[in-house]
Input
Amino acid sequence: MLRLDWSVSLRRLSIALVLGVVAMAGMTYLPMHLVHRGKGASVRQVRRGVHEWWHARDAVFGVRWSNLMLNDQPLSTPMWDGEMHGWEEPPPPPYPVAQFVRIGTLAVGWPLPTVAMRWTVTSTNQSFPVPAELDDADTSLPYAVESATTGRRGGKPQEIRLLWMGIAFNTVFYGAVLVGPLALARRLARRTAPSGTSG
Output
């Protein structure tokens, strides 16, 4: 009959949880310090109800950038078109009465994003984020990182959200990656160790 040593199992789970949390936190903030340039954003249009947005998106290892700009004229027929991750989605209406409503969101973490930071701009006097329909270069992503870490460029984000699904997944992922091979190595070592003989 298979018997489990619960004290060992709980100890391993505790170690895996601690290591997973530490690695998850490290891989949330480390990628931001490795960014030099983006890959070049792709620009398209997405529709949410009667509202149409220009949407620019760029990503490098562990860092994702999403830039939305609301089109002035509402659609005559409600539509839902264009895939976006949950952290990219615009807030529900109503929106400020302004010529340029821009929403820039930076999500960090690997393999899944764990923190999302957002800037909302309604004035042409603010240059960050740039209008999404023009955001096809490779500079907005590092500018967003600079804003998030130093407060320069666009200033500190107005909203910071924890992405709990990413936090949970990354914690389990890193816990398994770090503890699993160690446990397997110990088990193999016990099996191959010579057993003592009595004379």
In short: The radius of gyration is 23 Å. The chain has two domains: 6-31+167-190, 32-162. Residues 146 and 152 are 6 Å apart (CA to CA). The mean pLDDT is 87.
